[in-house]
Design a protein that fits this description.
The protein has 144 residues and is mostly helical. The protein has 3 helices and no strands. The longest helix has 82 residues. It is found in: Lipid droplet; Membrane.
Length: 144
Amino acid sequence: MAERIPQQLHQQPHRQTQQPRSHQVVKAATAVTAGGSLLVLSGLTLAGTVIALTMATPLLVIFSPVLVPAAITVFLLTSGFVASGGFGLGALTVLSWIYRYMTGRHPPGADQLDQARLKLAGKAREMKDKAEQYGQQVTGSQTS
């Protein structure tokens, strides 16, 4: 009896991981069916693409003097409209930010702008003082 328990413990996990043969067959059949169907669809799509390209090539060659400039024109017009819209949106955003800043609504980045303005004003004041000192030194040395 004691010998059977260890054997059953060793065999039980092996049985749980192994699926019945019928499940394996069903899984394999399903995989083969799905894979085969997708492979057939892929082949049909490739064949249709090759046939369509073969039929369209003479038309593309005949109409290429018209189609290429037309495609370039459409691309330029589209990119121009997209760029124009983007610049307009950017301008509206900036104007909205400036309006909120001027009316005191404190938009994002207003603190940084105020700090930069104060730094710039401080540097301008320093430069003005240095210029006055330099001017006094120059006028003082000329009178002597």
